[in-house]
Design goal:
Radius of gyration: 26 Å
Keywords: Membrane, Transmembrane, Transmembrane helix
Order of helices and strands: HHHHHHHH
Largest sheet: none
Structural class: mainly alpha
Number of strands: 0
Strand content: under 5%
Helix content: over 70%
Distance between the termini: 19 Å
Length: 220
């Protein structure tokens, strides 16, 4: 196999790698999926293991900061509240989808963007619903008794609003890949990756055949 053919094979391989890079989630989105998987697991497990995780419980040391949070978001301190328990079960489902999305990202799946968008919608609306349940409009302040505005802003609004803003930004960022024009470009990129890999494989095979044939000729 001559040098131009070798260079052509390398160019195909490089082209395939460039297209694969385009199919990946952006780094900040990938980091967000890692972070939210860890935090949601930690939070849901706190709910599932109550009363052991509550202040004074045998596992409270692992959720030390929650001793401040449960005094403001008093739903977390009420082991008989069904809503927060149900939401925590859904948190585990969300975490599972986060992990699936991360795996799909590394495998360059064509469904990565769709899955990431879907999970972000789940996270966004779950948090919006929780804010509604925390508000006077839905619960009449049952779980906010004695709170000051500063406490609620510092311990409830600021930490939880992140799970509204970031998923919304992720959805906006991924939207182009889900629109007809974006999907077409995304599909073209996938096809290019496949073609590049196939071409690279063919060139490598030809190179191997050339080496073998050359070896046979020399032996003769």
């Amino acid at each position: 196999m001559n040098k131009p053919s070798q260079r052509k094979g390398l160019n195909y391989a490089a082209k395939g790698l460039r297209f694969e890079a385009k199919l990946q989630l952006q780094t900040w989105i990938l980091i967000w999926f890692y972070v939210t998987a860890i935090v949601c697991t930690w939070d849901a497990t706190f709910i599932m293991l109550r009363p052991y995780t509550l202040p004074g419980g045998s596992l409270a040391v692992f959720w030390y900061l929650y001793k401040y949070y449960v005094t403001v978001d008093q739903r977390y301190n009420d082991t008989s509240d069904a809503y927060v328990f149900a939401q925590s079960l859904l948190n585990y489902v969300e975490v599972a989808f986060n992990i699936i999305t991360i795996v799909m990202h590394y495998r360059c799946s064509r469904h990565t963007a769709t899955t990431a968008f879907t999970v972000s919608v789940m996270t966004f609306w779950k948090t919006v619903l929780y804010f509604l349940m925390f508000s006077e409009f839905c619960t009449g302040g049952e779980y906010r008794q004695g709170n000051t505005a500063l406490q609620e802003i510092a311990l409830v609004v600021i930490p939880n609003i992140i799970w509204v803003i970031v998923p919304l930004v992720v959805m906006y960022s991924l939207w182009e890949k889900l629109t007809p024009q974006g999907s077409s470009h995304y599909a073209s990129s996938l096809a290019a990756v496949s073609n590049a890999k196939s071409s690279d494989f063919n060139h490598v095979t030809q190179y191997g055949d050339g080496v073998l044939n050359g070896g046979h000729k020399k032996s003769k």
